[in-house]
């Protein structure tokens, strides 16, 4: 996709956001706002097939898998700490505003983590070219003396806990706890990304703070307690730019123009405390043949927009590739991956206990040839436990057996619902060929719910939730500015 096409697409989205939908115009007034729809962008890293070995290591670390011989003590405080390997993965991100007056930053949208963090102007190890938050310029910030470090498979970020006003698409949480990053591993952040917004549950937040989305849901700010994702596909596109339209994210509902039929919801299993967005993976079929996979809690899968691939237990991954003739395991840096003949078309279908199975297309399953001969290709499902301490990575330790990332999620419209806690999938519509910028935001709401006091604060503080104002023009400006930012980056300004 060329930069001119991307710019044209963004302009079209901005114009579309000026047009109110018929459903919104005819709706009975609701004290809660309509969902906000806005485009997300995708940062594509230039990489070789061999880079997926490093990506796999980051995913293993994210989900508590220890390298063989690794010390459990070294990971004890961070066993459930989320990770994003921004240097190697493709990442989907969107803008948020922070502070008073507002400062705007691009953050990764990650349903596999729960903390919010942003790089600050005090971060000397952060790369040039990223936007950084200046706490001194915000009249609403409260900075604590509590330091925090988040360790990742490929690096770490460190900083200080703080509270400030956070705005996403017009939804505002005041006194939101976040980490102001002052140090990061070299090359861990890459422009134009300045931070990460975790969209999983509070139970896995290292800061112990209520995540932004959960504060809004707890405050009854959404007309529907849902978040919807449509993710675009550019793998294999030789013309893809570093920054491309990444799809659409809806906060507080879904975008009906991007899917057809019903959303097939599956609840997080009873007795399982919401942490990651966990579903039971019940069946896997490869070209119509069933693979043998674990059941019950041994088969729980984390649905994770912040992860590129799909990973599973050793025996299950072996069974999957046993259904593909002439597959063979890889070794060394690619330990846990399998290669298979590039001429073989592979379709994998996953069923999470709902009414239907959902596909991984051949385009997403095939990661590319392992060498210049083009004879053998790498599959997009790898062994999550390869080269790790199996006990530390067992489902009983709180880590899921499967991680289902964008290799799968690009094939469906996915919905994350807080009440009841569940994840749903729907078939993509014919319109889901690019980003969506449909306008939203009718009615207003303001609630106060219990907040998260900073560690150095006595007593309690309150997080105030402010819903979007019913201003189509404001949302249109928001959409247009996001797209102009993408266009400037595409032309190198």
Automatic annotation (TrEMBL):
SUPFAM superfamilies: Acid proteases (SSF50630)
Gene3D superfamilies noted in UniProt: Acid Proteases
Keyword set, alphabetical order: Aspartyl protease, Hydrolase, Protease, Signal
One Pfam family cited in the UniProt record for this chain: Asp
Region (Disordered), start-end ranges: 66-85, 434-454
Domain Peptidase A1: 92-426
InterPro entries associated with the record: Aspartic_peptidase_A1 (IPR001461), Aspartic_peptidase_AS (IPR001969), Pepsin-like_dom (IPR034164), PEPTIDASE_A1 (IPR033121), Peptidase_aspartic_dom_sf (IPR021109)
Coiled-coil regions listed: none
Listed PANTHER family: BETA-SITE APP-CLEAVING ENZYME, ISOFORM A-RELATED, PEPTIDASE A1 DOMAIN-CONTAINING PROTEIN
Name listed for the protein in its UniProt record: Acid protease
């Amino acid at each position: 996709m060329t930069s001119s096409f991307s710019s044209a697409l963004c302009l079209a989205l901005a114009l579309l956001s000026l047009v109110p939908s018929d459903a919104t115009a005819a709706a009975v007034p609701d004290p809660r706002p309509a969902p906000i729809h806005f485009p997300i962008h995708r940062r594509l890293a230039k990489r070789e097939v061999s880079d997926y070995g490093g990506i796999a290591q980051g995913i293993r670390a994210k989900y508590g898998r220890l390298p063989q011989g690794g010390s459990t003590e070294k990971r004890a405080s961070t066993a459930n700490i989320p990770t994003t390997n921004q240097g190697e993965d493709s990442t989907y991100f969107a803008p948020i505003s922070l502070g008073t007056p507002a400062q705007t930053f691009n953050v990764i949208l990650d349903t596999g983590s729960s903390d919010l963090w942003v790089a600050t102007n005090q971060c000397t190890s952060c790369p040039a070219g990223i936007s950084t938050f200046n706490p001194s310029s915000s009249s609403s910030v409260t900075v604590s003396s509590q330091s925090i470090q988040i360790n990742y498979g490929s690096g770490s970020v460190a900083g200080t806990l703080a509270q400030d006003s956070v705005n996403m698409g017009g939804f505002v949480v005041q006194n939101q706890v976040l980490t102001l990053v002052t140090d990061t591993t070299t090359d861990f952040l890459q422009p134009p990304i300045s931070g990460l917004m975790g969209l999983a549950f509070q139970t896995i937040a290292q800061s112990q703070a209520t995540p932004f989305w959960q504060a809004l849901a707890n405050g009854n700010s959404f007309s529907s307690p849902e978040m919807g994702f449509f993710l675009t596909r550019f793998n294999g596109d030789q013309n893809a730019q570093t920054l491309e339209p990444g799809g659409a994210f809806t906060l507080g509902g879904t975008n009906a123009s991007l899917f057809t039929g019903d959303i097939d919801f599956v609840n997080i299993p009873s007795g399982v405390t919401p942490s990651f967005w966990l579903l039971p993976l019940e069946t896997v079929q490869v070209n119509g043949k069933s693979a043998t996979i674990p059941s019950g809690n041994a088969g729980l899968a984390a649905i994770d927009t912040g992860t590129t691939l799909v990973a599973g237990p050793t025996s299950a991954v072996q069974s999957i590739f046993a259904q593909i003739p002439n597959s063979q395991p890889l070794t060394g840096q690619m330990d846990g991956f399998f290669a298979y003949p590039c001429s073989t078309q592979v379709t994998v279908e996953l069923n999470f206990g709902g009414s239907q199975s959902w596909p991984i297309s051949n385009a997403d399953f095939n990661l590319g040839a392992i060498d210049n001969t083009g004879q053998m290709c790498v599959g997009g499902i790898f062994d999550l436990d390869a080269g790790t301490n199996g006990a530390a990575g067992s489902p009983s330790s709180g880590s899921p057996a499967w991680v289902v990332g964008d290799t799968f999620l690009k094939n469906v419209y996915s919905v994350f619902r807080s009440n009841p806690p569940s994840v749903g999938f729907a078939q993509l519509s014919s319109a889901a060929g690019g980003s969506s910028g449909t306008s939203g935001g009718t009615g207003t709401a303001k609630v106060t719910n219990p907040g998260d006091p900073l560690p150095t604060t006595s007593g309690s503080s309150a997080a105030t939730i402010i819903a979007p104002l019913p201003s189509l023009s404001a949302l249109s400006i928001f959409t247009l500015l996001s797209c102009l930012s993408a266009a400037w980056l595409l032309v190198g300004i």
